[in-house]
Amino acid sequence: MVTNPGPGNTARVTQGRIFMMRILYIFLCLLILCPPLMADDTHDAEAIVKHKLDAVFAVLQNKDLDQQAKKKEIDEIVTPMFDFALMAKLTLGKKSWSQLPQEKKEKFTELYIARLKKTYLDMLALYTDEKVIFEPPAQVKKKVHIPTQLVSKDRKTSILYKLYKPADGWKVYDLEIQGVSIIRSYRSQFGEILQNGTIDDLLRKMEKPADG
Length: 212
Description:
Number of domains: 1
Structural class: alpha+beta
Distance between the termini: 91 Å
Largest sheet: 6 strands, antiparallel
Strand content: 15-25%
Number of strands: 6
Number of helices: 7
Oligomer: single chain
CATH superfamily: Tgt2/MlaC
CATH class: Alpha Beta
CATH architecture: Roll
Helix content: 55-70%
CATH topology: Nuclear Transport Factor 2, Chain: A
Radius of gyration: 25 Å
Order of helices and strands: HHHHHEEEEEEHH
């Protein structure tokens, strides 16, 4: 025996269909909108790095400035681009970082930033009239990777800038120089010291001038 659905059942079926149509519509909108949003992310992150490096090379090519003055100006240009505090935490590692008292965290971060800046600024200072080649950026989940090449007559250095987006805009949280992550490299060096010593041993070591 076949029964016709009552008015209540018909209304529920209609509401269910409308609900499913709305879900489908939202899903289609997300499919349409997400690629442009990702493209905007990579474009914005790349634009920041390009702008900063253009400013850096303008300083390097300024013959009216001595080397010390150039490094000071470059420091002021690139510092806002990096999240040095996050890089310090990532380098030391979650376990070691969480075990430090606040004053040791601050001391480590201060020494780490000084060392990291010296490494980066010394590398940039090798280049003056050379050029930077930007390769296509890549979206890696919510982060953006921007591969570049510093090219001169006698050297070529690949630098991969890894950025994430906190509330105050895109920030570099790691660099890969010639395929080697700065964070992983320092984590390995510091890990060896902490394996056989204490955080105070590490801090004393970091207070000595970095090589190069």
